[in-house]
Amino acid sequence: MSRADFYLIAKPRFLTEPLRLVCELARKANDAGLFTLVLARDQAQAEELDELLWAFDNDAYIPHQIAGEDMDEEEALVLIAVPGTPAPARPLVINLRDDPYLAECDRVLEVVPADPEAREPLRERWRQYKALGFDLNKYDM
After folding, report:
1. What is d(CA 32, CA 49) in angstroms, rounded to the nearest whole number?
2. For a FRET experiment, which of 15, 65, 118, 132 has its CA 20 to 30 Å from that of 52?
3. Helix (H, G, I), strand (E, B), or coil: what is residue 5?
4. Model pTM?
5. CB 96 within 8 A of CB 108
6. DSSP letters of 7-60?
7. Is-contact 67 87, C-beta < 8 A?
8. What's the order of all strands across the beta sheet hosting 78-81?
9. pLDDT tens digits, residue range 82-123?
10. Smallest Cα–Cα separation from 53: which of 76, 20, 91, 17?
């Protein structure tokens, strides 16, 4: 059974920079040796995340890249994909897009913004995952 984890942004350090939470999640996945696919909303978000992953922690190197930009992308533990770019299936998916991730994976992570209006679509996504039999978890970040 697949699992969906919802990370609700609440802490001040993530309120202004929600992609910092994505970096933290990517670091934990990297430390565990998990191949991770990050589904960015668009090219600009992918590039911002790429830059943040290089700079957010001086003591941690997270091998990552944007899908389609290099022939050796299967070696990167963290692969960032923009809509319309083919990306390989990976056991862990961090979904930043508007739709639920329904393809094959062991675990999908959903980042929930602090804005109450932005949370409503994610409540619907929770219901969708639940209807599909996903094991659901919620974490306040």
Report:
1. 20
2. 118
3. strand
4. 0.93
5. no
6. EE--SHHHHS-HHHHHHHHHHHHHHTT--EEEE-SSHHHHHHHHHHHHHS-TT-
7. yes
8. 64-66, 78-81, 36-39, 92-95, 107-112, 3-8, 135-140
9. 999 988 899 999 999 999 999 989 999 999 988 888 888 889
10. 20
How far apart, in whole angstroms, are the C-alpha atoms of residue 46 and residue 54?
Answer: 13
Q: How many Cα atoms within 13 Å fall on the side-chain side of residue 22?
A: 32
- Integer Cα distance of 20 and 99 in angstroms: 21
In the chain, the amino acid numbered 41 is R
DSSP character string of 59-80:
T----EEETTS-TTGGG-SEEE
User: What does the pLDDT read at residue 74?
Assistant: 73
Q: Which residue has the tokens 């639940």?
A: 130
Alpha-carbon distance 24 to 15, whole Å? 14
